[in-house]
Amino acid sequence: MVTNNNCFSLLDTPNNDCSTSCLTSSKLVNSLLNGIGAILDQIGHGPELRAVVVALAGRLLPLCHDTNQLTSWFGEHTTESINELTPRTRLLLAILDSCSLDSCSKRNPVNPSSVNGEQQQSNGNTSQSKNETNNMTSHLITGCIRCLALGTNHSVSLRYAIGDDRRRVRRLARFIRARLSECTIQSPVICKLNASSNQLPPRDEPLAGNVCLVLQHCASDTPLAEHLQGTSVIYDLLSLIQESQRLDTKRNAAILIGKLAQSSQVHRDELSRLDGYSVLTPFNSWTAALERC
Hints:
Elements: H1 16-22, H2 26-41, H3 47-60, H4 67-73, H5 87-98, H6 101-105, H7 117-154, H8 156-163, H9 166-174, H10 182-185, H11 188-196, H12 205-219, H13 224-227, H14 233-243, H15 247-263, H16 265-273, H17 276-280, H18 286-292
InterPro entries: TTC12
């Protein structure tokens, strides 16, 4: 059974421990979540405020351990019909529908050797503006996926809204391939070296791991496995297991593979064709997997 503890947090920073300890009070977390929910329920906010609020919700929801509060936050007790969604839930789905893997990971670095003088300054300003937009989009989709990872664990209507929609399921599965921007984690010199050597940046494990959680939660109640037939999802998940450094990422990907294979002969055949069972062998024993990693 996958619990909320499997939800990922943003990449560790020196201030994370302090901020987390300041938010351990359940009353404070609940109050903040209520305020965030009220903002998300309103319409007409600009993209900057929306990105900040959604990213903040993604950070706070994993800190809430009150099941009733989480269920209520996603509107499971307030809607009359199982197909009726609250405004905040519809907003999260709209964000998912509007963002893509390309828009999340797109980078526009400036090449100093190709520009000079006023042209360099002009291109630099344009690149900075584009990078700011891409960073905002990245925070928006990361926060959205975190929220959905919690929401699908507590809301049946949200699981149906995602798992019954073929286009939405396939869009979500593409985020399993997400990678970090080299320029956000390395110096410019190393960034140039990696670009010249065609070396791929590391996996965005928090994002990919939370995507696996969303798909896991939807797999049992919906035709999600059928929607993913004919895609590269099994290959993407096996690659994620082999390239990831975090045990949580490997485990979430392995569980999702198991659910897909259990639901569909097509996925079982694809797993056999890719020799995927050899990749999953360590997960036959969680203790052994923990000792290896």
